[in-house]
Specification:
Length: 318
Amino acid sequence: MPEKNPSIEALVLRRAQEGSVLPRQQTGASPQRLLTTLLGEHWLDAPAALSMSTVITLLAEFGISETSARATANRLVKRGVLETERSGRQSYLRLSAIGCEDTRHKTASIVRFGALQPDWDGLWTVAAFSIPEQQRHVRHRVRSYLRWLGFAPLFDGLWVSAHADPAALEPIFRAAGVDSLTIFRAEEAGETLPLAAWNLSDVAAAYRTFVADHQELAVRMTAGEVSPSAALAGRIQVLDAWRTFPGIDPDLPDALLPPDWPRTTARSLFVALYDGLAPLAELRFRQLAAVHDGAVAELAGHRTTADWASGEERRGAP
């Protein structure tokens, strides 16, 4: 049974145990990101695989050629994100168990971000560590883990977070091979204020840009002027844009934030679009899948922000 409320700490620990790096939260038109997002949004727990022909049709909706689509699928298979099976001359693809778990953890952390303001006891979690110069690969991995956990660096070996659980950090560091480590909770981190780890002006500007970029789509959605095709593309774009914020916003307590902090406005817009476009986006996914197999296409589903919070999924929306 998949974990209903997966924690990002569990994903990071598994990656540390594997010795692999988590990707930075970033936007972009990567076909691999696009395909995993499409499958994660509409095919995460479907009991059937999709034919390669369906995958090609899905990616063609976004202007990706058949050659690129095949190469994208093959790369994801080699990475272990997708698994493949054959029936006659046709190959079929689905997210692997690891691909499903990664998608569930990462998407949940992205969609839930900014939903609730955690209580804050006035203490910072500080991770002080030392990694020898000859172990640059370890340093790179540890930085990747810390950014996913909401940390930012005051200095190279001194990272801070307002909310990270110290108990969850030590096994991650140990699995990554870090021996020289101190984790503590404190009101300060030496002579440098912890807030100096982030440029809050840039974060605020990013939220305002998000709102400006997506307001028009919200207006068209409310007016009923968004087609299924536009809903599928728009919802992917909104999620892709929102995924940057867990990596740049430290989720600081309200008392530490500037007046008129724009995250609440931006999140309200994200929720309205992500949830409001979901039924039409699912419809378009099913239309594209039905080109090759109408019965399998009916297995498509979607999740709203509330569904991600509960771990449920809606399937076959009319």
